[in-house]
Design brief:
Layout lengths: L1 H42 L12 E5 L4 H12 L3 E6 L2 H14 L3 E6 L5 H15 L4 E4 L14 H29 L2 E7 L10 H23 L5 E7 L5 H7 L10 H13 L4 E4 L1 H13 L1 H10 L10
Parallel strand pairs: 1-2, 1-4, 2-3, 4-5, 5-6, 6-7
Helix pairs in contact: 2-3, 2-8, 4-5, 5-6, 9-10
The structure holds NADP nicotinamide-adenine-dinucleotide phosphate.
Amino acid sequence: MLLWSSDLQGLSLLCLFFCSRMGLLLKILVPFVGLVLAFCFYSKENFKPEMLKGKRVIITGASTGIGEQMAYHLARMGAHVLITARTEAKLQKVVTRCLELGAASAHYMNGSMEDMALAEDVVKEAKQLWGGLDMLILNHIGYTYFNYFDGDVEYIRKLLEINFLSYVAMTVSALPMLKESGGSILVVSSTAGKIGIPFVAPYSATKFALDGFFSSLRQELIIENINVSITLCILGYIATETAEKTVSHVMQKPGAPKEECALEIIKSGALRKRELYYPYTIVRIALLIRDWAPEFLDSLARNSLNVENVKKS
Ligand code: NAP
């Protein structure tokens, strides 16, 4: 009892001490937090669609999905667009729509990005058309299955060529023009390029490769004072036709809208951000948990999928 009352006394003294210091603490803390918030708010450049007016932009994989939506946003903003994919008929339709929406100019080149020569030719075409380049958006991907890894090494080699090597080849060809314009490179990646998600082993490998290459290259550009930004876009589940066809039976929630996703990618590139997380909260929280409790995140990733719907092929 004696001990208990002395404990209480100690606690009250501690409370009194904190209360007397609280005023002082608040006097320092409130202006400090205010200053930090004001700095964050005012130092952050806001996005304006005019930033893209007249800019010369290559968008790969723009016949469907997020790439197609990026082409439309850029067209509305008055940019010049050169889009790529394999299916010519779809590209023609996207080009026509871009011109209707107000693109300064719209062109396409079709072919498979398995062929590094195509990757280089697309950049050459931009030089011929516009004499320079302001933004390179690397977005295409090859066929991706959502299932247990089947052991096909040749498929991984092919996917690495399409999803990774062609990105590197286009960057190498485009860098001289981007250096001249102080331009930007946008690399569309995925949470599967930061976190181990089951059933996408080959795809995940290609997206992790993008992070390694472009994060290292970004550092070198900064060291050499080269004014070319690299934005890595980490996307969660987006409701494109391909993604819905491939994973909707396994996902417990619907995908985020592709139109908004496309706009966020363009904004992040225009603002020269290091990385974009979309949808922000879910992707950001997952990445925070990854560093502190990886096993917990692994179990969350497994439990967020209807694994029973994945049939071994
Ligand atoms: P999508 O609709 O399937 O678009 C893929 C594009 O790439 C199409 O234009 C396709 O056109 C083209 N393509 C396919 N194979 C090609 C090849 N061999 N050579 C050249 N082009 C080729 O995909 P999306 O869902 O919009 O995804 C776009 C990007 O977002 C990808 O980088 C993807 O990894 C990323 N992402 C998507 C999600 C999602 O849930 N949707 C999530 C995370 C990350 P053709 O078939 O005519 O060639």
